[in-house]
Amino acid sequence: MITGAEAIVRCLENEGVEIIFGYPGATIAPLFDKLSKSSIRHILVRHEQHAGHEASGYARIRKRPGVCMTTSGPGATNLITALATAYMDSVPLVAITGQVSSDLLGRDVFQEADMTGAAEPFTKYSYLVKDAEDLPRIIKEAFHIASTGRPGPVLIDIPVNVQQEKLDFIPAGPVDLRGYKPTIRGHAGQIKRVIRAINGAERPVVCAGGGIFAADAQEELKRFIETVNIPVISTMMGIGAVPTAHPLYMGMLGMHGKSVANQALSDSDLLIIIGARVSDRAVLLPANVSASTKIVHIDIDPAEIGKNLSTFVPVVGDAKEILTQIMEAEPAAKTDEWVGLLKAKREKLKLDYAPRKHGINPKAFVNMLSCMLPEDHIYCADVGQNQIWSAANCEVKTGRFLTSGGMGTMGYSIPAAIGAKLADPEKTVVAVCGDGSFQMQMMELATICQHDVDIKIVVMKNDKLGLVKEIQKKSYKNNEMAVDLTGSPNVVAIAGAYGIPGRSIASLDDAEEAIAEMLDHKGVYLLECIVDENEPSL
Amino acid sequence: MKHVLTALVNNQPGVTSRVSGLFRRRGYNIDSFIGSSTEDERFSRLTIVVRGDDIVIAQVISQLEKLEDIISIEDIQAESMISKVLLFMKVKADVNDRVGIIVVANACNARVIEMSKDYLILEALETEERISEMIEIFKPYGIIELVKTGVVAMKR
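Output (structure tokens, whole complex):
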């Protein structure tokens, strides 16, 4: 007989878990006690929300569910923003939360929160474990559900008495969930219709979303667009699905996207959406897509198809599998003229990389940064103006661009970078945030120091919540309210207090040397860039 | 111990979810849950059968009363209510069994509402106990499919 806590640790080891991001507390104490005897590494965070974000960064790079663990009540509710962030961006997480003793459930005892209820809209599935005997099955199912189909966060809420209960440990058999059988292979008839649509198209365009990464289909996508000669645009989550410098890549679409990408979308006669939701940020109005444009929508989640745009050919399945099926049918289209037109437009795009009178030009800076980083670097962009600057100006080659695309969660970049670095220590990982978002995550500097995580941090400082300021300028008659960050600390000094070296630059002239210094430094480093408060996001 | 609660609630989206969410959150066991519109379109009537001792039921009622959307709620006692359950049951019935099943159905106060060469569909409107008995009676013939409502109840 072993305890529930020992059984949980054993199950996690069997799932191949290497790292858990967590924060302890009374109702999760039995599990922490047993975790100390495991080979699984525990990363102590400084706020539960960041345990979730770190697990997210880890999952996106390691391509397996990230695991985070907190106590009940506030520990669990603090995790909710991270669950919602992962849910919106389809990131596989397994979140384990402690819960009060099961005989006390529903009585509002100390640190009781209805976590399965509270997290319900933000989880792919959740469990409240009532019996320790169920633990092996539930944990196996949780990992299966999180990582298959459309990935997402799964919550396991475990009362403290269940962790203490004794059980005969019997490893779980194969997962058998009657109501859960994701479709992987595309329907042969639908593939034929896709081929017919491609073969008949004159102005086709592919819109790549985050689903390309979830399916690990970058190679297949590249082969498809190169063979048929189809231009590609991407959503924010799809940045890097093909290298940004690829001759067929026309940039990110949408509100903050490239004009040529939006033109490709509106002028196309065939739009092939792969693994994307086409949310309001991507396509401002579904009306922007011409009524005569045929839409092929490939997604593993049937509920996404037709949700925001009416679809001509829906194909449910895994992007990698479906792209392979499409290639087997040898599609061909005459697109030379169309591709030439878009390429010419792309050439003519003016990049505004000129130096500024006050502060650095952030667009030029992030471009320079991404070009100076190794080709396979991981770039974590936060939320706000810095996200738009990064999304529009970063060069992504063989690495990854990680950001909170769906939820737009401020304070994502540094924890995501920590998770990504721990998932792949060989890679250079950089987090770029604003001074607003930095202050939502700066407690994680301690996590970085404690666990010796070598990431590079860039803080764009304009003493303003820049993106909101822009909204107020545009839509509220310049009535600036609550966007002034006066009172913020000197971030280089803050880093210094943690023993983290750093410097501040206020001119693009110093950028190259400062970036080189940051990249040459072994270990975590913080670079502050002073930006003019009136610098627009576009 | 089973209790039948009858609640008049606002007829708005989300009310059912709030009420059922409260049961889940507090760990109360629902036996059945029925909602329907009433003669007044502003309100719906929920009939909830819940298990628990008197202390638990008193808690359930107090917690439900706190919900803004609940206009009134009452625990109706068995002796002062009428209550029924509606049952549809598809029973295997080949040539040999058919007559027997119809005789039994009549004895149980169930009606044959559809007939095919392989099966019959029976309908019954009875108390919860009688419906449970009826299901046991028909099991030996082979029940292909079964559906029943929860308890609907009204105070006399």
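The first helix of chain B runs from residue 15 to 26.
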